[in-house]
Structure formats: C-alpha cells, structure tokens
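>> received
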Amino acid sequence: DTSVCATEARRFNSEAASLPGAEVLVIDDGSTDQTATLAAGAGADVLTMPFNTGYGPAIQTGIKHALRGGFDVAVICDGDGQHDTGSIAALLGAFAAGRADIVVGSRYLLPGRFVAPPLKRIAVRFFAMLAGASIGQRVTDPTSGFKALNRRAMRYYVSDLLPISFPDADALITAHRVGLHVTEVPVVMRDRTEGRSMHDGYKGFLYFFNMLFSMFVSVLRHDAFNPEGCDDDSRPAAQAEGVRDHRGAAVPGADIQPRQAP
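>> returned
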C-alpha cells in the first residue's frame, strides 16, 4: 500500500536521523503503484526490482545493498505498517548486551500488547516450539519480519544457505546450524490497518506446509559456512546480481532511486 509505505519511510527516516550513519532503504518489489516515488519523496532510498521476486529475494537485495555500502548492521522490517520505529533501539541494544548475530523483534514478549488471530496464534506457537527445540533455546516469534543483523548474519542472508521462499523459522534453524547466534527482544507491533497479509486465505495453508517441510530440511542440512571468509561484493550497490527469485532463477539488476527532500 503506497500510503503505508510512505508513512513508514518517514517514520524510519526520522528514527535514522538519531542514529549516526544510518540510511533508510525501501525495496519496491515490482509494485504497480506509486510506492517508489512516494517512498523516495518521504526521504528513503529506493531499490526497484524489475518484477515481483518474492519476500526472500527482496530481503536479499536490501542486505546486498547494506554489505556493499559497508554497513555494520542492517535492520529489516515489513512494509505493512506494523513495526514501530521506537523498537529499533531495543534491537540494536541486543548487540551491545551480549553475543548475538541475529536479533529478532518478538511481539509476544510483551504480554497483552499484540493479539494475533486464533489460527495464526496456533501456527506461530507450533513453529516456535519446533524452532526452539531445533536450536536449543526459547523462541516466541519465529515469523517476525522485524530483525537486526550484524555483518556475519548479513553474509549468511545473501548466501545460498538462506531458505529463499519465506525465511522465517527455517532461516533461524539454518543460521544456528552454521554457527550464528540468535536472540529475541521485546518490540512493539501495531495491528495491521491497511493492505492484506501475504498469508491470507489459502496462501496461509500453503505457507504452513511449505514452512514445515523447509524446517525439516533445515534440521537435516550440514552445510559449511565461513561468514568471516566471504568477500564483500564491490560492484555498484544498485545491482542485484546473485539474488535468486522464488523459482531459483537469477534476478536482473535493480534500479535505484535516490531519496528526495521530505
């Protein structure tokens, strides 16, 4: 939704002003409305994909941009207006507080602040139980799209190891198995006010069974990964070479639209 995207860009741009060196990037994943123009006008940089590539490839594009730009930390958020910019400090604070590579913002660590629909609540608890058992620690919000990654985690997110369709609980399991440390912090999430979830209707059932299978595969994988040994790509950050779409095909280069004065 264009109005939501522009509003979120302004919020995150305002939060970034208090963080030295921070930049706001919006991934326009093949939208057919004015998302790119409004987001740029709200003060964000915009990467426009040549067609709709899917959730995973869109995230990889943003992370590649952060790696090539030399950023030490990347904060990922969804574009549905649910994530509160005031919680960014909690995500970043977890890096200073202890050993963590991936910090997940959990909406369920603040009792009573967020109430999900019954079916989604059951599914989230089920995936949280499986993910927690797989990585040997408590997991409360395995489907959260609000995360902070350090450079080790960013290199994992752009590698072939990342489950590409919907990198949620399965991505946390794989991250743990390749030696990355995952932690959760409480964050504020608002109810959705506009737009529709990508898991609505029959897509929710497809997501459930696809995620269940992907988690099973993630547990069985024994991949070697050395995040410290990965070379950062020095090519122009606006290009998206190496990013795969949901079919596994390479995604063509993205076009970057610089920010405009808000």
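>> The first strand starts at residue 25 and ends at 28.
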